[in-house]
Design brief:
The protein is mainly β. It has 1 helix and 18 strands.
């Protein structure tokens, strides 16, 4: 199952350079348009990747990795939280969120390298409270769960408005997974919007907004 790609992050200034995160195969980098790849995550405590986010303003040296694939297949193995590298993947720092298990998306603030938002889906087979949108303002030393719906509804995606980093959108997904069954959606699923940098959130996908 490691051949399943979870995420790709490309250098827009040089598209022959990019990182690839695999569902259960770690993180790899190419500088020659995919002719060859170098492994960067072989010595860490987990090998499952949910999302990667590269700050190309640092020349690709700063890399965030959210572990645990988020598609909720039976073969989507759990991760152990967030990792960060400041030297292009030569070394890694563990940045917490151990019970997130499956990371759907990482959003980096466009000008503040210490501010990051993470969409955490949570445990695959059981309810848990460590789900939703987490925000750090100190480079991952501490995290705050600023959007939490319930123990079965996690965040699968978070996006920043490119014209205003204080405006964010988050996709919340209710699901329950068992070995014999998969309830793929519930009424607490929805799109949420924040206008204060992810500190508070409002449900944007209510019936009135949909009809409009």
């Amino acid at each position: 199952m490691s051949a399943r790609v979870a995420d790709v992050d490309v250098n827009n200034a040089n598209p022959t350079e990019f990182y690839v995160g695999y569902a259960s195969g770690g993180l790899w980098k190419t500088t020659n348009n995919g002719i060859s790849f170098s492994p960067l995550f072989d010595n860490e405590s987990v090998m499952t990747i949910g999302d990667i986010a590269v700050d190309w303003k640092t020349g690709g040296k700063t890399i965030w990795v959210g572990t645990g694939e988020s598609i909720s297949s039976r073969s989507s193995y759990s991760g152990g939280g967030m990792f960060k590298s400041d030297d292009g993947g030569k070394s890694w720092q563990y940045k917490g969120l151990p019970e997130s298990h499956h990371i759907g998306e990482i959003a980096l603030h466009p000008t503040d390298p210490n501010t990051v938002w993470v969409a955490a889906l949570g445990h695959l087979y059981s309810p848990n409270k460590e789900r939703g949108i987490f925000k750090t303002s100190d480079g991952g030393k501490t995290w705050r769960n600023t959007l939490n719906v319930d123990e079965n509804t996690g965040a699968i995606d978070v996006k920043i408005d490119p014209s205003n980093p204080n405006v964010l959108y988050a996709a919340m997904w209710y699901k329950t997974r068992r070995a014999w069954n998969f309830e793929e959606g519930g009424q607490s699923s929805g799109i949420y919007k924040s206008t204060d940098g992810g500190e508070t959130w409002t449900l944007a996908s209510n019936d009135n907004n949909i009809r409009q």
